[in-house]
Design a protein that fits this description.
24% strand, eight-stranded mixed beta sheet, 372 residues, binds adenosine-5'-triphosphate, six-stranded mixed beta sheet, binds 1,2,3,4,5,6-hexahydroxy-cyclohexane
Amino acid sequence: MPPAAVPAEEPAAAEEEEEQQTKGLPALEGLVVGSYCHDVLLRGGRVVGETLGGAAAFVSNVLDAASPPEASFSVVSKVGSDFAYASAPAPERHPPLLCPAPTTSFHARFSDAVASAHAPDRQLRRVNACDPIYPDDLPDRRFAYGLAVGVAGEVLPETLERMIRLCRAVLVDAQALIRVFDAEGGGSGAAVRHIALEGTPYARLLERVAFLKASSEEAPYIGVEMARRRCCVIVTEGRDGCRLYWDDGEARVAPFTAVQVDPTGAGDSYLAGFAAGLLWGLSATDAALIGNFFGAAAVSQIGVPTFHPKMLQAVKQILEEKAIQRSSPCINGTTFTFQRSDKHDELHAALQEAARLMCEQQQNDTATDNCD
Ligand SMILES: Nc1ncnc2c1ncn2[C@@H]1O[C@H](COP(=O)(O)OP(=O)(O)OP(=O)(O)O)[C@@H](O)[C@H]1O
Ligand SMILES: O[C@H]1[C@H](O)[C@@H](O)[C@H](O)[C@@H](O)[C@H]1O
């Protein structure tokens, strides 16, 4: 099993961290890097939704909801002056940097054909691209963990490298590394395509990354067999849940039931749920249950989901009861536990109840909306 990344510290970083702790600052601070964006959802040529997007928005939403009380995080995100969602909860709590370039925006064209877990369910085009996030945009301090969650190539290789130096453990979404954009005329934006990770400048950083998450559509481009020798690889499989691969083991983690209305942000919400699970002290395979839970929650609503307080209370209570040695949270140590614990099935069953609560609430909300 690979040890978690033990990044080379920036000069004076250890002293700085110690100083922060003695000042009483949170010991479990995270760094989320990736831009908010505008998402336009189209079906049959018609606009069916316009929402806040960007992995950072979905990730912040889940981390705010599900992290343990002693954890906090900072977001480094860029938008233009046209940004339409400054007062939405995630950007309001974690404001982006303002740039001269327009806000990154995507058009997602959904097909009516039933998507399999491994085939694209939408054609994505990038219509505008904001500025990249440069190493100097990152705060000059140490973090317990980092999430590299770009959507349009904004997390540059040198920025990821600096994240690795600043953060004890870095979790990366493959979409931040392998997306390329084929410019085409006609004003309809650039088609989003994937390239092989091995040919990119990010490849050499993999062995200093703790977890790399890819969707099953992205997995062929990262080369799971090669990547798992360098870090723990997670492949999400839509309604089928996910699989984890580390160098000498693998695990399948069961999904939760959801009524899917919009798949956007499932992968982002999964990754944030997974990180929150690690923060609560769960093993990677157990934390993947929290990932699956929030992935299912994301697909149940259009855009960045709102979580019902009762559902969140239930999830937090479950985590308080089942998770584990919070005095030494895995994400803050230098090694991770990968295997499922003997509480895995119990945790799944308890979360299944909370998922049922979520489905019921969604049905009630729909019924109320229909009566209005
Ligand atoms: N229909 C569904 N029912 C239940 N859970 C789902 C469903 N779709 C997604 N999930 C959960 O969300 C996780 C991530 O979904 P998926 O594999 O579709 O990611 P993705 O393709 O990166 O998503 P996106 O690009 O839309 O953010 C899955 O591993 C699963 O746990
Ligand atoms: O808002 C979404 C979301 O963040 C997805 O993860 C990403 O694939 C899309 O590009 C973006 O538009």
